[in-house]
Automatic annotation (TrEMBL):
This protein's record includes keyword Cell wall biogenesis/degradation: yes
Principal subcellular localisation of the protein: secreted
Every Pectinesterase catalytic domain range: 2-304
Subcellular location: Secreted, Cell wall
Protein name: pectinesterase
Name of the top EC class for this enzyme: hydrolase
UniProt GO BP: cell wall modification
Alphabetically ordered keywords of this record: Aspartyl esterase, Cell wall, Cell wall biogenesis/degradation, Hydrolase, Secreted
PANTHER family linked: PECTINESTERASE (PTHR31707)
The EC number(s) this enzyme carries: 3.1.1.11
GO molecular function, one term: pectinesterase activity
Length: 304
């Protein structure tokens, strides 16, 4: 256990991670993180399997940092406030954030390459590139994720179930308008079993962003995703899509039409004013009923 008042066995999250046994010994190593703001960079290396972060709740237990691409030598892979390589990571009841600000460009809050990881009742706050779901199989359950530019990205097989996804204002002076993309999946080969699945989740804007949007909808555009890599794959199933979602649904990566013939962007059974499909781009699809089971937790990430 760790605590800001010094009553725990460790003073920092990283100290507690360092105390975890190598390779997990087949058991979960639970780190109880009491309420407080922990200003630090946390790394869970490959050998520290089965680590569990158990906080006191969203907004109560907060791990925070501000590293961004503007700092010398920083890349999206190295700048995360919390980064996990070890398999079997779990977390519940905490906020992970990057406070670099809307003008700082890429600024990752959380990066994960943890296979069979489960994140539940957690919050991820940032702007551009908030959550880097880098690789392998990940489940996000009842989480809150906030950002604006490509703020859920990576080449993992990730399932987002019962989550709340919120777009925040992008620029320091956001009134002039912008194009936002919720996702930027990075599948590089059609043989990879990766992709993002959103099921029974809400896609909407923060209160501040919705005020901007409703004041001038024509200049504030939000898209479900755009293709970071050639075989980008993302689907939204039984989600509620707010009116901030562009009628086009999806955004090209560039003017040259990169990846539009090789990506897979699908929708099925969505509701809300942003779910109308009559003006969707021609390179997206409505998922056939017989293919919906492909995108279940059991089939897509082999979850039990």
């Amino acid at each position: 256990m760790l605590s800001k008042d010094g009553s725990g066995t460790h003073n920092t999250v990283q100290e507690a991670v360092n105390a975890a046994p190598e390779n997990g010994n087949g058991k979960k190593f639970v780190i109880r993180i009491k309420a407080g703001v922990y200003e630090e960079t946390v790394r869970i290396p490959l050998a520290k399997k089965n680590v569990v972060f158990l906080g006191d709740g969203i907004g109560k237990t907060v791990i925070t940092g501000s590293s961004n691409v503007g700092r010398l030598g920083m890349t999206p892979y190295t700048m995360a406030t919390v980064a996990v390589l070890a398999d079997g990571f779990m977390a519940s009841g905490l906020t992970i954030q990057n406070t670099a600000g809307p003008g700082a460009a890429q600024a990752v809050a959380f990066r994960s390459g943890s296979d069979l990881s489960v994140i539940e009742n957690c919050e991820f706050l940032g702007n551009q590139d908030t959550l880097y779901a880098h690789s392998l199989r990940q489940l996000y359950k009842s989480c809150r994720i906030q950002g604006n530019v490509d703020f859920i990205f990576g080449n993992s097989a990730s399932f987002f179930q019962d989550c709340q996804i919120f777009v925040a204002p992008r620029q320091v002076n956001p009134e002039k308008g912008e194009d936002n993309a919720v996702t930027a999946h990075g599948r590089t080969d059609p043989g990879q079993s990766t992709g993002f699945v959103f099921q029974n989740s809400l896609i909407d804007g923060t209160e501040e962003y919705l005020k901007l949007y409703h004041s001038n909808p024509k200049v504030h555009n939000t898209f479900l995703g755009r293709p970071w890599k050639e075989y980008s794959r993302t689907v939204f199933i039984q989600c509620k899509l707010g009116d901030l979602i562009s009628p086009l649904g999806w955004k090209p990566w560039d003017d040259a039409g990169f990846a539009l013939k090789t990506l897979y962007y699908g929708e099925s059974g969505n509701t809300g004013s942003g779910s109308t499909t009559s003006q969707r781009v021609t390179w997206s699809t409505q998922i056939p009923a017989q293919h919906i089971d492909t995108y279940s937790v059991e089939n897509f990430i082999q979850g039990d």
